[in-house]
Amino acid sequence: LLQGQLSLADWERTKAQLLDNDALLTPRCVMRVKTVLNVGASGVGKSWLGNQLAGKTIFTESDDMDSVTQKCSKVVVQDPPLDVQYHMIDSRGLFDTHKTQAEVQADLAAFAELAPNGIDAIVVVIELQGGRFTPFVKMTLEVVESFFGATVWQHSILVLNKCKKTPEQIWADAADKQPALETKWRESGTVICTVPRGKEDDQGNLVVESISPQIRSLKQAIATTSQVDQGNLVVESIATQIGLLKQAIVNTSNVYDSDEFRQERAKLKRKAEEAEGDFKTDAWRRKMQEENVLLLQGQLSLADWERKKADLLQEDEKAESERQRALSLQRERDQAVARATEERRRAEQRERERDQEAARA
Hints:
single chain; alpha/beta
């Protein structure tokens, strides 16, 4: 503004926008942030679960096997009663009917940019109709572990959709049919939820079991109507179910991270640093630095960052052209002044010479 590169009206608009952003960002200074990643095959209820956690429709839902979530997306939802801010990432399905497994895994790698500080909870959504570990379910679990690594179960909450069995029965089935995986789950402290009738079950029961005593005691505290049977807590009402899941997320203490995520973030950092070098004017370079901060904090997607960069580069080019024109005009003025000064000097010299000639005469 003071350099004359911004009009007062534009300055006022920018000031108002920054004040709005400041008001939105202020709660983040006092609220705990929990980054939650929903993963699973297409059509198993990931987006529905995200909507339930958010308390409103923010993700597109679908029951078919074609992935409606075409790209990784993140929304920020504040939960004042728990003093928590959820950063919820809804990934596309692990098995998109139109993509190869390698392509889907490549798509999933994109959410590394949305979780700059790692992931607090990985919610693995599985459709377990009849409570059976079908080949597809087994393949889903194998892909989850192959992509995230064996430590994934230390950070996971398994949500078994359309499953009428209790978690105790699921544990027994896992011990019988997937003993190695069941052992990993128990040793890792994995939380298991079963949803009997999925998203249509407004009156149904959600059964939640955790082998962690801390989570179990927490379930006892927040349940309103329940019956306890060998450590399993049956909670009635969807609201309580979601509240229970939120509490499990809040109580996560270890953050999931991996070499792949760190490499992706390193690439983003290099990309951001290189972008700053493309700018010729300090003013627009500083604006690019602001966008880089948002990108590296996971508040701006790479696609949006690219668009912002393109727009800022255009403005930078205009500003540089204006600067060059101003410099050119200044050079012309300086040259004109120099020529005038030289002409005046020569005129004075000629005047002195005439005076000398007159004196000699």
